[in-house]
Amino acid sequence: MVKPFVPELVYVEPKALEYSLGKELISKFEKMGIEIRETTSHNHIRNLPGENHFQQYRVAKSTLVVGLRKTLKFDTSKPSAEYAIPLATGCMGHCHYCYLQTTMGSKPYIRTYVNVEEVLEKAEQYMQERAPEITRFEASCTSDIVGIDHLTHSLKRAIEYFGESDLGRLRFVTKFAHVDHLLDAKHNGRTRFRFSINADYVIKYFEPGTSKLDDRLEAARKVAEAGYPLGFIVAPIYLHEGWKEGYKVMFEKLEALLPRHATKDLTFEFIQHRFTKPAKKTIEKNYPMTKLELDEAKRKPKWGKYGIWKYVYTNEEQEDMKQTLGDYLNYYFPEAKFEYFT
Ligand code: SF4
C-alpha cells in the first residue's frame, strides 16, 4: 500500500505562521525532523536540490509549501460544479498523463493554504449571490486534495462547512486511499466523494505514487459506509492489450465490494485518454521511460476549448469504449447515474 504522503522538504511563508493551521503544521513537521525553509513567497523558491530537471522535478513533487491563498477569486468549474474551491495546489503523485504538469509548469511543488476560513468565507459570498440556487464547489481542480489532507485536514473542515450549509455542495475526486480521517466528518450528505479508478494495468504503468486499485476500492467502501454520496471517474480510459477484460475486472471488484445502499446514489463519469502537443513534450521530459502511447498519427485531432488541438481516440475506438464500458455499467450498476463520456 502506498504510504500517506510526508514531505521531504517544507517551505513556509512567514504570514502563514499568523494562522493556527500554519503554526500547527510547522510544529508538526519540526517534530517529524523535516527540513523547513522560509520563503517570502512560493514564487521565490529557487535552487531545489537536484542536479538536473529530472531530479529537481522529483524533489519538487515531495516539497510542501505552507502558505496563503492570495487570490480569493474562484475559477469556474463547469460542467460538474459552478466554482473551483482552492484548498491546495499540486500533487505528490506521478501519473504520467497528469494535467498539472502543464498547468503548473516550472512550479510542481505542493502548496497548502492555511487561510481556509477566508476561502470558505469567499465561498459563502458566491453562494449568497446565487441564492436560492444551490452552488456546487469542486475541490480537486488543482490538486489531489485527499492525498495531502491527512496532514492538513482543510478538506475535512470544508466538508463540515458545507455539511451545515443549505446552499452549497462540495465534490472532489481522488486517486488516494487515505480517507480514514474523513470518515467521521459531519458531511450531511452534501459532499460527493469521487474516486478516480482504472484498470490495474493502467494504474500499474502510468500512475506511480498513487494508491492501487484495490486500495482505492476499499477506501470507497469505507466512504460509502460513512454515508457519503459516492461517485467514480473512470479516467483516463486507455486502450491497451486486454483492456476489455481489465475494465471488466475493475467493475466486478467494485460491485463485489460496495454495500447495496451505496449503489442507489452513485455517479459515473467516463473520460478517454487525450493529449496535446505541449503536454506530450512535458511528459517526455518528466517521464522519459513512459510506455504511454502518444502518437498523433494514431489519434483523432479535436479542437479544444483552450485554443489548442488535442488528440483523442478515433471515432471507432470511442464507440467501442462507450459500448464496452456502458454495457459493464448497466450490468453491474443498473441504478447508477451515468453522467458523461468525453
Ligand atoms: Fe495528477 Fe491526480 Fe495523479 Fe496527482 S493523482 S499526479 S493530481 S493525476
TrEMBL record:
Organism source for this protein? Answer: Filobacillus milosensis
Catalyzed chemical reaction(s): (5R)-5,6-dihydro-5-(thymidin-7-yl)thymidine in DNA = a thymidine dimer in DNA
Superkingdom classification of source: Bacteria
All copies of the Radical SAM core domain together span 77-305
An example Gene Ontology CC term for this record = endospore-forming forespore
**Where exactly are the transmembrane stretches of this chain?**
none
What is the protein's name according to its record? Spore photoproduct lyase
Which coenzyme or cofactor does it need?
S-adenosyl-L-methionine; [4Fe-4S] cluster
- The keyword Cell membrane is assigned to this record: no
What is a GO molecular function of this protein? metal ion binding
- Family of the protein in this entry: Belongs to the radical SAM superfamily. SPL family.
Q: Which NCBIfam families match?
A: photo_TT_lyase
Q: Name one GO biological process term.
A: DNA repair
Q: Which keywords has UniProt assigned to this entry?
A: 4Fe-4S, DNA damage, DNA repair, DNA-binding, Iron, Iron-sulfur, Lyase, Metal-binding, S-adenosyl-L-methionine, Sporulation
Pfam families documented for this protein: SPL
Question: Which proteins does it associate with, and in what oligomeric form?
Answer: Monomer or homodimer.
Q: Give the protein's function.
A: Involved in repair of UV radiation-induced DNA damage during spore germination. Can repair thymine dimer 5-thyminyl-5,6-dihydrothymine (known as spore photoproduct (SP)) by in situ monomerization of SP to two thymines.
- The record's EC number reads 4.1.99.14
What enzyme category does the UniProt record give? lyase
Q: Which InterPro entries match?
A: rSAM (IPR007197), rSAM_sf (IPR058240), SPL (IPR049539), SPL_Bacilli (IPR034560), SPL_firmicutes (IPR023897)
